[in-house]
């Protein structure tokens, strides 16, 4: 018997006309950084987000976060508050700058930053006579943070707010897009994000002057003069036109992609309604509109015979890929010496959670196979 087709967690989803967009930049020789495709991509992102804020296209989300922290004034030795339930790219740029991450637990409802632990961490930093130089809030798995409370804390204590919206393009909180609440917002377009440019990212700046600085720093801080004069230690972070062209093709279907992710999420909610030992991470509240980049389930029962590790193996045998949620950053070997505020919510999610296939290319047949696998596992 033939092996069944493998169902991946989230493959890049390429539109049929993508090659037209790519052919155009190749034929016009606009493949490298700068050029009309990059500007067009930035403008279309701005339109999609309904914002006047400048959007700077870069070659990764990590680069965007690095620039955001730098522009926020983060320096070596500073404390930077950071959500622990995230991919390591949320905190690595803090380390690039020689700053010290202070990790914060998640709240039970969204599994993003717990506001009371944010305040606790700020107070602790103040006691060390070092006000945090920035806060990095992450909308993990496409579910928005409690941005109002977090933004208020940042305002009250005058701490620059950076939103890591890498996974949440198209998600909204109280009708405002993720990425627009803070002083800076970052997006990622790597292979498995909701849209991809092959690799890439963007920085959204509240202050237009800062966006100018970002563009400058992203191009080795080359002065406007004719020679090779550089007025700062810059970076090679600009997005090439080739990548922007793929991004332009992807943006045409962004609304459908979000719709598809939300339908998949609904599908999983229905799959698990009768299964009491599993909770689907979901925000059923009008204030939140999530893109559900990845749907995550959590085993809530103490039934030791069924658990995420075993379910993952069961799914893999049926050719279905799944993945554990991020290992909390404060538990990573590279960050265990840092400070941490909170309880074990993030750790519990890591230990009891599983991300299920959430790619935009999943077919009805794929969903049937997934549903059958879920039913077989939980009825066994
Ligand atoms: C993907 C991701 C990033 C990094 O983006 P790259 O484009 O891969 O550098 C940052 N933060 C989070 C939360 C992400 O999921």
From TrEMBL:
Belongs to the DegT/DnrJ/EryC1 family. Transmembrane segments: none annotated. It comes from Leeuwenhoekiella blandensis (strain CECT 7118 / CCUG 51940 / KCTC 22103 / MED217) (Flavobacterium sp. (strain MED217)). The modification N6-(pyridoxal phosphate)lysine is found at residue 193. Keywords: Aminotransferase, Pyridoxal phosphate, Transferase. The keyword Transit peptide does not apply. This is Putative aminotransferase. It comes from the Bacteria. One of its GO terms (molecular function) is transaminase activity. GO terms for biological process: polysaccharide biosynthetic process. The active site is at 193 (proton acceptor).
């Amino acid at each position: 018997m033939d092996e069944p087709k493998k169902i991946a967690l989230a493959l890049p989803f390429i539109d049929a006309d993508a090659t037209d967009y790519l052919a155009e930049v190749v034929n016009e020789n606009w493949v490298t950084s700068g050029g009309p495709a990059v500007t067009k991509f930035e403008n279309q992102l701005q339109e999609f987000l309904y914002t006047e804020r400048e959007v700077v296209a870069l070659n990764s989300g990590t680069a965007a976060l690095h620039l955001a922290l730098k522009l926020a004034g983060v320096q070596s030795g500073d404390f930077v508050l950071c959500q622990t339930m995230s991919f390591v790219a949320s905190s690595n740029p803090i380390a690039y700058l020689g700053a010290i991450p202070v990790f914060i637990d998640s709240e039970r409802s969204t599994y993003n930053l717990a506001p009371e632990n944010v305040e606790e961490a700020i107070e602790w930093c103040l006691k060390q006579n070092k006000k945090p130089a920035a806060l990095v809030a992450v909308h993990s798995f496409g579910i928005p943070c409690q941005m109002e409370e977090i933004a208020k804390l940042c305002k009250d204590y005058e701490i620059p707010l950076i939103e890591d919206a890498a996974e949440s393009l198209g998600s909204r909180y109280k009708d405002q897009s993720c990425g627009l609440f803070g002083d800076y917002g970052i997006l990622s377009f790597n292979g498995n994000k909701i849209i991809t440019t092959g690799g890439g990212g963007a920085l959204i700046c509240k202050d237009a002057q800062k966006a100018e600085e970002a563009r400058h720093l992203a191009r080795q801080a080359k002065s406007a003069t004719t020679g090779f004069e550089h007025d700062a230690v810059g970076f090679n972070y600009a997005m090439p036109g080739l990548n922007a062209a793929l991004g332009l093709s992807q943006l045409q279907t962004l609304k459908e992609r979000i719709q598809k992710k939300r339908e998949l999420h609904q599908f999983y909610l229905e799959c698990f309604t009768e299964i009491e030992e599993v909770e689907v991470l979901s925000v059923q509240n009008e204030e939140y509109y999530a893109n559900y980049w990845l749907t995550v389930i959590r085993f809530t029962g103490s039934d030791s015979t069924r658990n995420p590790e075993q379910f993952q193996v069961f799914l893999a045998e049926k050719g279905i890929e799944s993945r554990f949620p991020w290992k909390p950053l404060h538990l990573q070997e590279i960050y265990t010496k840092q400070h941490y505020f909170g309880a074990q919510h993030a750790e519990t999610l890591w230990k009891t959670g599983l991300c299920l296939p959430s790619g935009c290319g999943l077919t009805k047949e794929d969903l049937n196979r997934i549903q059958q696998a879920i039913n077989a596992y939980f009825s066994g």
